[in-house]
Design brief:
This protein is an all-alpha fold. Helices cover 93% and strands 0% of the residues. The N and C termini lie far apart (40 Å).
Amino acid sequence: MKSREAYEEKLQAQLDEWEAEINRLKARADQEKADAKIDSQKKIEELRSKHQDTSKKLDELKAASSEAWEDIKSGVENSRVSLEQSMRSAASRFH
């Protein structure tokens, strides 16, 4: 059970960190010129959507029975990896 709790806590902390990063990226995007701003805002919305999806999956994971937990964890992990890759891509674009 400890590994389950540790995984959930670690993922929640990562989601919180990514949410803060998305907010910083949005602030930078808001300062861009019109065309670049539109592209940046689309990327920010994509990040927010992936973040929300991963957060919902984490909620499902937390509510899952111990029998279903491992099955749900793989979907959560796929969502986390996708979000992480998108965050890296966005961060490199704005830095």
